[in-house]
Backbone:
C-alpha cells in the first residue's frame, strides 16, 4: 500500500488531521490499534476552545456539535464557602467554550472519513515505523485478518497518544515532566447536570469538578491519592464526597443518578522536544500531556494538527519545506503556555499532601484575586477559551 501521509492513531489528532488533509486533496491512511466501537465509546475530554468549535464548523463537521453540544459563556469557582462566576464571554470579547464529548467528536470524524473513502485500519497489531530518515518512510502492522501489511508514505504523523510507538522511535528526545501527588477519580452519571456551567471547587478535603457531556449526562471528578484503589470508592461514597466538596454554599444539591463509568486518571505534565524526526511528525498526546484541570488536552492536539496540516499543504502545493522545518517551534510556544496554565490551575485548586496552612491561605488568596478582580479573571478567561495563535 502507498499513501501520502500515514497517520498512526484515530484519536482527535489523527482524525482531524486526516480530515484537514482530505479537504486540500491530500491522501492519508489511518492506522488504529483499537476497534471502532472502543474508540467511539472512550469517554475523555469534553471542553473545546472557542477556535476549535469554529474550526469544526468551518470544515463542515459542526452540524451535530451545534445541535447537541452545549455552549458555555462562563465557569464557576467554588471556595471558602461561596461560589463566584468567571464571565468568559464578557472578559474575552465574546468568546465561549463548547462542551461536546471527545467520543462524539471521534464518532463524527470516523463517520466522515469512512464516508469520504479514507481507509481506517482498526485493530491493527504490532504497529511499527521504518526508514524515517529516508524519502519514503513505512508503517508496518498486522491487519485485523492477521496479514502483515506495509504502507509506504511521504510522511508519517504520530498521533498515537501518550503510550504509542512513534515517540519512542525518535532518538535523543529531551523530556520535561512533572507528576502530581494526586489523581482524579472520574464518573459519568446518568443525571441531569446540576448547574448550567462547569464548577471547579477548591475544598479542604480536596478538589472536585462538576462537568457535563449532555443535558442527561453529568461528568464529575474528585481529587484522590495517586495510588487510590477504585474498589474503596463505592457509588455512595463518591456521591457523599461530591456533595461535600461541591455544595459549599449550602442550599444547592447535586443531582445524583446511576454511575455509568468510573475510573482513576493520574495527573501528569509532559513535553518532549523535539516533535519531528526525519519524516515522522508527532502531534497531540504523543508529544505532550497536561493535567486535565485546564481542559487543554484535546485542544492542544487540534492545534498541533492544524499547524501540521498547513505545513503539509504548503509542501504539496509548492514543494516548500520551511513550514515543515518550523513545525516543532510553531507548536511548542502554545504547548508551553497551555502547560503553564494547566499547572497553575492544578496548583491553585488542589490540596497537596504536604501542604501547611500558610500555603492553603495563599491558595485561597489567589482564588479570591482571580475571581474578584478583572485582571485576574481576564487572564484565566483568555487562557480557558484558547489563546490566539502566534503569527
Ligand atoms: C482517562 C483520560 C481522561 C481525560 N480527560 C480529559 C479531560 O477531562 N479534559 C481534557 O482536556 N483532556 C482529557 N484527557 C486528555 C485528552 O483526552 C487527550 O489530550 C486527547 O485525547 C488527545 O488526543 P490525541 O488524538 O492526541 O490522543 P488519543 O486520544 O490518545 O488518541 C491516540 C489514538 O492512538 C491509538 N493508538 C495508541 N497506540 C497505538 C499504536 N501503537 N498503533 C495504532 N494506534 C495506536 C489509540 O488507541 C488512540 O485512538 C483525558 C485523557 C485520559 C487518558
Residues:
Amino acid at each position: 500500500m502507498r499513501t501520502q501521509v500515514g497517520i498512526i492513531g484515530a484519536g482527535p489528532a489523527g482524525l482531524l488531521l486526516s480530515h484537514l488533509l482530505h479537504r486540500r486533496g491530500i491522501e492519508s491512511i489511518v492506522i488504529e490499534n483499537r476497534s471502532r466501537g472502543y474508540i467511539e465509546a472512550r469517554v475523555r475530554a469534553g471542553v473545546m476552545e472557542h477556535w476549535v468549535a469554529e474550526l469544526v464548523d468551518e470544515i463542515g463537521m459542526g452540524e451535530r456539535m451545534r445541535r447537541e453540544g452545549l455552549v458555555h459563556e462562563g465557569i464557576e469557582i467554588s471556595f471558602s464557602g461561596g461560589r463566584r462566576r468567571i464571565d468568559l464571554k464578557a472578559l474575552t470579547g465574546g468568546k465561549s467554550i463548547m462542551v461536546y464529548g471527545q467520543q462524539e467528536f471521534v464518532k463524527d470524524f470516523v463517520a466522515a472519513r469512512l464516508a469520504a473513502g479514507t481507509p481506517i485500519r482498526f485493530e491493527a497489531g504490532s504497529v511499527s515505523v521504518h526508514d524515517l530518515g529516508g524519502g519514503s518512510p513505512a508503517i508496518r502492522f498486522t491487519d485485523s485478518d492477521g496479514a502483515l501489511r506495509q504502507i509506504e508514505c511521504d510522511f508519517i504523523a504520530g498521533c498515537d497518544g501518550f503510550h504509542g510507538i512513534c515517540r519512542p522511535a525518535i532518538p535523543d528526545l529531551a523530556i520535561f515532566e512533572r507528576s502530581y501527588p494526586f489523581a482524579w477519580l472520574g464518573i459519568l452519571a446518568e443525571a441531569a447536570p446540576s448547574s448550567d456551567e462547569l464548577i471547579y471547587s477548591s475544598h479542604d478535603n480536596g478538589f472536585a469538578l462538576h462537568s457535563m457531556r449532555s443535558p442527561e449526562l453529568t461528568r464529575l471528578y474528585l481529587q484522590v491519592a495517586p495510588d487510590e484503589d477504585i474498589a474503596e470508592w463505592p457509588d455512595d461514597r463518591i456521591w457523599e464526597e461530591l456533595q461535600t466538596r461541591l455544595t459549599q454554599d449550602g442550599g444547592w444539591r447535586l443531582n445524583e443518578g446511576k454511575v455509568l463509568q468510573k475510573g482513576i486518571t493520574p495527573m501528569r505534565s509532559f513535553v518532549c522536544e523535539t516533535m519531528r524526526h526525519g519524516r515522522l511528525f508527532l502531534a497531540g498526546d504523543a508529544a505532550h500531556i497536561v493535567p486535565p484541570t485546564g481542559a487543554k488536552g484535546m485542544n492542544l492536539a487540534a492545534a498541533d494538527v492544524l499547524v501540521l496540516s498547513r505545513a503539509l499543504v504548503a509542501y504539496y502545493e509548492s514543494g516548500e519545506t520551511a513550514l515543515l522545518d518550523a513545525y516543532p517551534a510553531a507548536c511548542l510556544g502554545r504547548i508551553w503556555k497551555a502547560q503553564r496554565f494547566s499547572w497553575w490551575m492544578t496548583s491553585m485548586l488542589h490540596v497537596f499532601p504536604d501542604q501547611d496552612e500558610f500555603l492553603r491561605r495563599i491558595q485561597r488568596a489567589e482564588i479570591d484575586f482571580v475571581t474578584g478582580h478583572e485582571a485576574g479573571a481576564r487572564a484565566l478567561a483568555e487562557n480557558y477559551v484558547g489563546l490566539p495563535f502566534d503569527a
Observations:
- The pocket of flavin-adenine dinucleotide is lined by residues 8-14, 31-34, 39, 44-47, 102, 124, 127, 159-161, 163-165, 265, 284-285, 292, 295-298, 301 (CB under 6 Å).
- The chain has a mean pLDDT of 96.
- Residues 5-69+100-176+268-345 form a domain with the FAD/NAD(P)-binding domain fold (CATH 3.50.50.60).
- The chain has two domains: 5-69+100-176+268-345, 180-267+351-385.
